[in-house]
Amino acid sequence: TLFLVPAAGGPMAFLPGQFNMLTVFGVGEAAISVSSSRREVGPLQHTVRAVGPVTEALCRSGAGDVIGVRGPFGTAWGVDGAATVTGDVVVVAGGIGLAPLRGAIDELVHRPIAGGGRVFVIAGAREPGQIIYDNDLQMWERDGAVVAVTVDMGSPGWSGHVGLVTSLLDEAGFDPATSSALICGPEIMIRFTARALVNRGIDPERIRVSLERNMQCGIGWCGHCQLGPFLLCRDGPILPYAGAVSQLLCERER
Question: Is the separation of the CB atoms in 221 and 232 below 8 Å?
Fold first, then answer.
């Protein structure tokens, strides 16, 4: 996790779910979601997984290094103070997908939801060593959220659940008739989780997903992020699952 302070000016305003373009000078830039909570005072946080030249260079950055920041860009989860959230909220994250959801979860847990709705956080990882934000998960549970964590493969000493995140939905205890959902993770996980939630009775219009496809400019000009009618830098990354998105999730990334 990178903790960034501005070289000049004040702190950056953002909405949970938005992303920045982070630049390592001489290497390139990459779209990285903001993982800060707006309740936190201090540096802007981005949690990064090293999967390519730019993200590897970001992960090698040390205290005092200077990186470029453009943004914030994109749509948000819709849980900011101006939005009305009612009923239970089911948040499902796979792996590093918990990072774009961290700020939204923190806001949901620490402010009353209309109608007395509860927050359900279901997080999955490939194996126990890849679970992120363990302290946050414990804090959210202490503060009233229902938290469940699962891994695809257990390891010595792991006594928690083993299986896909979808295997935890049936026992989660949310009310599908009034629930909304936020989903972020690998596309295959998003696809199966969204379908499972619809099958449980959640209205597809109340399900939001985060889609990321080869974002290069951050503003929808270059076209590399196009997915059907959407330019995800501009129209996403957060989109309602209902309608075109549910079909486009079946399209292979090219």
Answer: no
